[in-house]
Design brief:
Rossmann fold; 406 residues; six-stranded parallel beta sheet; alpha/beta; 14 helices
Length: 406
């Protein structure tokens, strides 16, 4: 199958989408051939990866990768590779990406690009919270895409029932949607290299590990920190995708009371993140929207309780004793949830740690998710495309496991 994605290894700055695809390749690369077309540099970087050859396919793990420079992408190289590379499934990993989704779909719809099945993974871009960001650009495009039939005949990969609902809200009941959760990163299952930090009442080390951008809502978290009592330190990890937004967060942090601190610790590779998380007491992420939230699951898997917003698929962590889920609105409510963990003594805190570890590791090592992904790919691979004439209908009977039919 041919995978078109705006970000891939060895990059890590784009966050979850890279891990979603690389984990799928790692888990299923012995059963499916993955041919991946991706940029020759990390998100936001002006420098290509060292040693990249833009003229050939490069083996990387269990996949073959063809790297494309920005100039090549602007000249249509991604669509050209889609036309010349034999494949039985074209798997697009964005709804809005100009070069890696929109141009290939436009060529398929209007310029005669012949493909097999097309599977689109929106990667959370269609959630209500995500659509509120840059809404004046996104919503007119969605209307135009529907009117021109750009997405007619494609199939959809939703990583949670909530994302299926998002797709149905915009495109109605007719399109075929496969529901298969993202696959976790096995590296987060390895044993800790050191004991967890001591937990004493009235003190906690918090960690925010995500991209620094409006959608992850760090400024809201900083406002919440201002209401905390006790000795609290927040360390922030992640690429500075929006420098102006980060500057705003720093300005808010300057107003924090003396008992609370915030420090930026830079970027961390996926390989180093497990040991990094092991140094903290609590994971915090008031994100505006997540279709999966790799960082949340990974932190839980390392035994970190989490305080998160109610805009992720992980609302059950509170009932499982693994953290708190807080509706966005008044930052003081988020602060109250954090304060609960700041106040805990070791015995009760350790119960949260155990519950978080059990919950997170079960999701990382989820055989049902692997099987749902396997069946989704198998159901799509090898099926002839009708050039968009079917408008989202297929001539088979019944829905396979892991799939929802409208």
């Amino acid at each position: 199958m041919l995978v078109l994605t705006g970000y891939y290894l060895p990059g890590h700055r784009a966050g979850g989408p890279v891990r979603s695809i690389s984990n799928m390749v790692e888990r299923l690369g012995d059963e499916f051939e993955f041919w991946i077309v991706a940029p020759d540099r990390d998100f936001g970087s002006d420098e290509p990866y060292e040693g990249v050859d833009l003229t050939r396919w490069t083996p990387l793990g269990k996949a073959q990768v063809r790297y494309v420079s920005p100039a090549m992408a602007r000249r249509g190289a991604v669509t050209a590779l889609a036309a010349e590379t034999e494949h039985d499934l074209m798997y697009l990993n964005s709804f809005f990406h100009p070069s890696y989704t929109l141009r290939p779909l436009a060529a398929r719809r209007f310029a005669g690009l012949r493909t097999s099945r097309v599977l689109v993974a929106p990667r959370g871009e269609l959630g209500r919270g995500a659509l509120r960001l840059k809404a004046l650009k996104k919503r007119p495009f969605i209307v135009l895409g529907r009117l021109t039939g750009l997405y007619d005949g494609v199939f959809w990969h939703a990583t949670a029932p909530e994302e299926q609902t998002d797709i149905r809200r915009l495109f109605g009941p007719k399109p075929r949607v496969f529901v298969a959760p993202n696959l976790g990163s096995p590296g987060f299952l390895r044993p800790p290299s050191a004991p967890p930090p001591e937990k004493r009442p009235g003190a906690a080390r918090l960690v925010f590990a995500s991209r620094i951008m409006r959608g992850k809502n760090l400024a809201y978290l900083v406002e919440a920190l201002g209401h905390l009592r006790g000795d609290v330190a927040l360390d922030v990890f992640g690429p500075l995708q929006d420098p102006a937004y980060w500057e705003h967060c720093e300005q808010l942090a300057q107003r924090l009371p003396p008992n609370v601190s915030m420090s930026y610790r830079g970027e961390v590779s996926a390989d180093d993140m497990p040991a990094t998380l092991d140094r903290y007491h609590l994971f915090v992420l008031p994100t505006l929207a997540e279709n999966f939230g790799h960082a949340i699951v990974e932190a839980l898997g390392r035994g970190l309780p989490a305080v998160i917003s109610d805009t992720t698929p992980w609302g059950e962590i509170e009932a499982r004793g693994a953290g708190r889920v807080v509706p966005l609105g008044d930052p003081r409510r988020f602060a109250e949830a954090i304060q609960h963990f700041v106040n805990l003594a070791a015995p009760e805190y350790d119960r949260y740690r155990a519950a978080a570890r059990t919950f997170g590791r079960a999701r990382i090592d989820d055989a049902d998710a692997v099987e749902a992904t396997r069946q989704m790919l198998a159901a799509n691979a090898g099926a002839a495309d009708d050039g968009g004439a079917s408008h989202g209908t297929v001539n088979d009977s019944g829905a396979s496991p892991g799939e929802e039919r409208g």
